[in-house]
Amino acid sequence: MMSEFNPGLIMIMGGLLVPFFSGMVRKCLLLILPVIGLAVTIGLESSASASVVLFDYKLEYLRVDRLALIWGYIFHIAAFLGALYAIHEDDVLQGTMAQIYMGSAVAAVFAGDLITLFIFWEITAIASVFLIWASGTERSFRAGMRYLIIQVGSGVLLLAGAIILYSETGTIAFNHIGLESLGGKLIFLAFGIKCAFPLLHNWLQDSYPEATVTGTVILSAFTTKLAVYCLARGYAGTEILIYIGAAMTAFPVFFAVIENNLRKVLAYSLNNQLGFMVCGVGIGSELALNGTASHAFAHILYKALLFMSMGAVLFRTGTVKASELGGLYKSMPWTAGFCIIGALSISAFPLFSGFVTKSMILTAAAEEHRWIVWSVLLIASAGVMEHSGIKIPYFAFFAHDSGKRVKEAPLNMLLAMGLTAVLCIAIGIYPSALYSILPYEVSYSPYTFGHVITSLQLLIFAALAFVFLIWTGLYPAETPSTNLDFDWVYRRFFPRLFDWFKQGFHEFSNQSSDFLLAIYRKTLAWVSRHHGINGLMARTDHLGVMVFWTMVVFLIFLILYLNG
């Protein structure tokens, strides 16, 4: 029976039961649901499927293969770690919605058709917004509304694309789609919005930093990685994704460097890491897709670890602004240590998780002779080291001493960070365990002399560049500021353009109204002159003439009618 059960439903249904329990029972339920879901996922056969016919549509609510399984594994692991990190909270609504959100992401991964995918796609959007609104601030409400509109909008595009695709092909199966049809293009755009493609990405930087301490950790693991999975399922080998991915790796580096809010820095870094995955999907070779899947697995862990450490800082100090932090290693040494492990992992330092996954994508690009793309990815890797590998731990825990002396993070937070850190190191030391569950057979060794030396050279160069910039005072100052990025177009340019059009319309309306009023008055005067009481057409001397000609026309018509 469980072999025909979508494991995501466990957390969804369990989440609905959360409000009916309290205290330790509720906390245990939040922890055990992901564990049960993972056990069910492990027990699934690699070719299992289950479907139901509804309104003449075959809905495949369970489709299991190696691509779906690796996302299912890491989503459940992330769900457990996120629940453990948040277990100290008593917010029932947030706990409920977090379970439903995470369960819907898992259920979407195992969806075998586009309608089932759409249903869980929209549930993830609706449930996750409560993790943003739970902050209870005006900024979080505005960011949440924008997030909800964009996420639901992507679902509408997905549904429209599915309907059009069905009319074109006669099937709603979620397999390779491509860009040949209009439906495929709409679905591609829906996935791109959720994946935070360039120019469509600012919802991420706007919403994630405004979520709760625990909400941001959970959000970072699911929404965008679900989109990556969907791209890998539906658009593997689509060339435009190579260039989109390369752009995603490059453009956030500058904004992350100048950003003062460290959770927002991590949001930009999330864009950067997504770019590597998108690029791997675009290349589309077995090595590239293995690299995408493995990097998504590793990224969920080390990004969660970094968000956990910054969440702990925010929880204890009330701020994550670089200009207001520093010296926290004295009072939060464990959190600082875990943050450094996350920083080394995202920087792809040898013996850490990022090294054994990111290098697969770089190697795949080289094997396909995509040398320009390979160079962009390599340079972007150095940028990652600078803004996430060094900037985050340096300004939060070292740099100038802010004088803040606070308690270490709560025990449950430390446990969650500790387990995540262990996984980051374990994957780096023993990558074969991760490689064994990838979609395709792996014949790749990350620890070659060339890979290690190239990586170390790159990391040392980035570290020296950071030290030089700090020493010379050329590094951008960490000052309170608002970085709009491309949001300037949406928040400044478009409103100003609208105001310009509105002003121009009012001026045109005023001028037009004066012109039309003058025409109206002239027309009224003309009518009055001809049809008024004293007008030309009111004169009686014309009445007889009019009657005469009326009679003539009538007689002509009568004669023609009778002769016909």
Describe the 3D structure.
This protein has 20 helices and 2 strands. It is an all-alpha fold and 564 residues long. The protein has 3 domains: 1-235, no CATH class; 240-485, no CATH class; 493-563. A two-stranded antiparallel ribbon has the order 1-2. Helix 3 runs parallel beside helix 12 (286-317), helix 12 (286-317) runs antiparallel to helix 13 (333-346) and helix 12 (286-317) runs antiparallel to helix 16.
Number of strand elements: 2
Number of helices: 20
Q: How would a crystallographer describe the biggest sheet? A: 2 strands, antiparallel
- How much strand? under 5%
Percent helix range: over 70%
Question: Would you summarize the structure shown here?
Answer:
The protein has 564 residues and is mainly alpha-helical. The chain has 20 helices and two strands. Strands 1-2 form a two-stranded antiparallel ribbon.
Topology readout:
Blueprint: H1 8-17, H2 23-42, E1 49-54, E2 57-63, H3 66-85, H4 92-109, H5 114-133, H6 138-169, H7 182-194, H8 202-207, H9 213-234, H10 240-258, H11 262-283, H12 286-317, H13 333-346, H14 353-367, H15 371-397, H16 411-429, H17 432-435, H18 449-472, H19 487-531, H20 543-563
Antiparallel strand pairs: 1-2
